[in-house]
């Protein structure tokens, strides 16, 4: 007799209920679960199986119809495995299914995360002010509309390539990053980074990466000492090391050097760095100067000039 799935409105929200599906042989097996908990289970955060499953110790052929998988089918598809072991196998290796309402909710959540990240890292290069989330969203919508129009109109794409600024040729114009919208199959962080590249490349609104203005001080006695840390590589997470001086490494972190000066036994440099490079620069100063150097933040948000 089919097992009905009771979903009281005060206990289970439709947007939070999902299923994991696995095909073994000619049969398809499913378990009813909570999506967020499945992800936590796979990431070894959640360890209590009862918190993951909507219905415990039951494997279905079809969750929506309440069709429980016969014991004979389970034994044939998963030989010598208990029901709990089978459920764990499905949870860890099966395909996570979501409903339309949950997909829409996930898309909206990802969209908000992407926009928040972008809005926190871009500024108006003239006023040095950050944009609101609404303005960033409109700018991205404009880019996605342009990308859709270009995709459907080859002649328009050619015209844009021919009219690209700074003497760019068609091939170079085509290489500009094209923003086509938010998806749930990629992380919010990776999409935000690509969105920033697209906004900076196309400039639907005047934007530049937010930068920090720093003052770095260091004893002149250590400036010419060698370091194996490549500043640009360290900032980008590249493990490749190259030889250079500590001074070269410090200046390598700076996108723009505003001033350098030597006062007695101390060297000072003022410049702009991207926020993501601050940690690496600070660690370099602390490690190479044994605490005698210093990094001071002069301004938190500076718009990079074109």
First-to-last CA distance: 71 Å
Q: How many domains make up the coordinates?
A: 3
Q: Residue-averaged pLDDT, rounded? A: 81
Helix content: 40-55%
Principal-axis shape? elongated
Q: What are the segments in which pLDDT stays under 50 over at least 5 consecutive residues?
A: 6-15, 155-165, 168-173, 229-242
The biggest sheet amounts to: 5 strands, antiparallel
Strand content: 15-25%
Which structural class should the secondary elements be placed in?
A: alpha+beta
Strand tally: 12
Give the ordered list of helices and strands.
Answer: EEHEEHHEHEHHHHEEHEHEEHE
Number of helices: 11
- What Rg, in angstroms, do the CA atoms define? 27 Å
Describe the fold and architecture:
Strands 6, 7, 10, 11 and 12 form a five-stranded antiparallel beta sheet that branches. It is built from eleven helices and twelve strands. Helix 5 (133-152) packs across helix 6 and helix 10 (246-253) runs antiparallel to helix 11. By secondary structure, it is an alpha+beta fold. The longest helix has 20 residues, at 100-119. The N and C termini lie far apart (71 Å). The protein is elongated, with a radius of gyration of 27 Å. The protein has three domains: 14-98, Ribosome maturation protein SBDS, N-terminal domain (Hypothetical 12.0 Kda Protein In Nam8-gar1 Intergenic Region, Chain: A, 2-Layer Sandwich); 101-206, no CATH class; 209-303, Alpha-Beta Plaits (2-Layer Sandwich). Helix content is 41%, strand content 22%. Strand 10 (256-263) and strand 11 (266-273) form a beta hairpin.
